[in-house]
Amino acid sequence: MTFGEQPAYLRVAGDLRKKIVDGSLPPHTRLPSQARIRKDYGVSDTVALEARKVLMAEGLVEGRSGSGTYVRDRPSPRRLARAGYLSAGGGSTPFRQEQADSAAQGSWDSRSAQEEADETVAGRLGIEFGDRVMCTRYVFRDAGRPMMLSTSWEPLTVTGRTPVMLPEEGPLGGSGVVERMAAIDVVVDNVSEDVSARPGLAEELLALGGVPGHVVMVIQRTYYASGRAVETADIVVPADRYRVAYHLPVK
User: Fold this and answer.
1) Per-residue model confidence as pLDDT tens digits over 184-200
2) At a CB cut-off of 8 Å and minimum separation 6, what does 86 contact?
3) Which domains, from first to last, does the chain contain?
């Protein structure tokens, strides 16, 4: 096989990637061994190994202990709607709004605990480093499969010693930030979301069922009431399974 200017390991990886994408190497098929790649492409062991590493880093293949390396399933990304926040009828997040549909199969688990705000959280909430916040960690599931993680922080200077101090407990547990804040006379009037992508952390990928090297989308969301941040959250979504779609009405 003739190679041009591109490094040989990238060309080998590119050819194998093409076969995976076009179905020549379908899901659950064993990837050619390092020796086979070396022979078929006329490259060294080092090149063959690096090509396999590229495919693994891209999440196209996975290693199975004592068995070899196999092509992974490539699901078509599903739409994850971000269509706004309803102030009437609950003030729920977009995920909870979607789950109001009788056909939806979503569920979530959560746990809350008081923490001291680190510098990042303090900066986003406009509070002092070390101030107390209520931290709530969520695992959202779609038909039983983990599909989204969320960690939220609320300043206890706002919710402390109120009936809504625990987001998922009490008379308004699970109602959403907008409605909960309204119950203590805090009117949420603005929400910001910044979306970025990065390699998933080991604990995130373990929780989401990903493999090392997988990319996740991170939605950094903050609720404001008259310019004051009353909740901020990091929402983590596997980029290979979901695409974030926004519907923004024109006013």
Assistant:
1) 999 999 999 999 999 89
2) 92, 97, 178
3) 8-71 (1.10.10.10), 78-246 (3.40.1410.10)
